[in-house]
Each structure stands twice: as structure tokens, then as C-alpha cells.
Amino acid sequence: PLPGPEARSAVLRQLLHSQATGGGPGGAVGLKGDDMGKIVRATEGYSASDLTAMCKEAAMGPLRELGPAALARVSASGLRPINLSDFNHALGVIKPSTDMTALKAYDAWTASFGSQ
């Protein structure tokens, strides 16, 4: 089964942990208030692999803003934190890889013929 809201939250927090501890004084993740909750709700149907790809895409946001010339001169601590708009962009690029219709068919087959 795909991760539920609590599991998605745990996966996201784990994926972002190194970013949050590796940045400047506030860390490299600038999520505020219910931003994590918004991301968790928006990722319904995402697998852990999908979440990983989405986080990687979001982490590219601050790098893409700089452009190639500035990117060669800036240090990691000079990058702005990853924020909710980076995740919103990533959600537009990274879609769930699991077909929910197929998943329901597998669940129905397992209920009828499989063991649990």
C-alpha cells in the first residue's frame, strides 16, 4: 500500500532532515506553519520513491534561480532556503507513479483470492 498521511510526513521529514541541518542559521528548508501539512495533503497517492523525487526537484528551486554564472560562485550557505513555492513547483513536475485504478484492482484481487 501507499504511505498514508503520517507515513508521508515521516518520509518527508527524514528526506528534508539533512537539508534542514546542513544550511545556514535557519537551515536550508524554510517551511513555515502548516506548510508541511499542505505538502502532505498534496502528495496523496505518492509512493516513498515519488516523495524522494519531489524533494529532489524542490531542492533544485534555489539553484535554478541563480543561473549558471552565479551558481559557480555561490556557496551552499549562500542559497536561499527551500520553501513552499519550490514544493508547489515540484508537485507540478513530479506526479504519482502509481495508477490508483490499478491499485484498487490489485486490492480487490487480493481480497478475493489472496491471503492477508
Would you write up a description of this structure?
There is one protein chain. This protein is an all-alpha fold and 116 residues long. Helices cover 63% and strands 0% of the residues. The protein is built from six helices and no strands. Helix 2 runs parallel beside helix 5. The protein is elongated, with a radius of gyration of 17 Å. The chain starts with a helix and ends with a helix. Residues 22-27 have low confidence and may be disordered.
Task: Give the averaged pLDDT, no decimals.
Answer: 87
Task: Please state the CA-atom Rg, rounded to the nearest Å.
Answer: 17 Å
What is the subunit organization of this protein? Answer: single chain
> What kind of sheet is the major sheet?
none
Q: What class, by secondary structure content? A: mainly alpha
Shape category? elongated
Beta-strand percentage range: under 5%
Low-confidence stretches: 22-27
Task: Kindly state the number of beta strands.
Answer: 0
Indicate the percent of residues in helices. 55-70%
End-to-end Cα distance, whole Å, is: 13 Å
Provide a count of the helices: 6
Order of helices and strands: HHHHHH
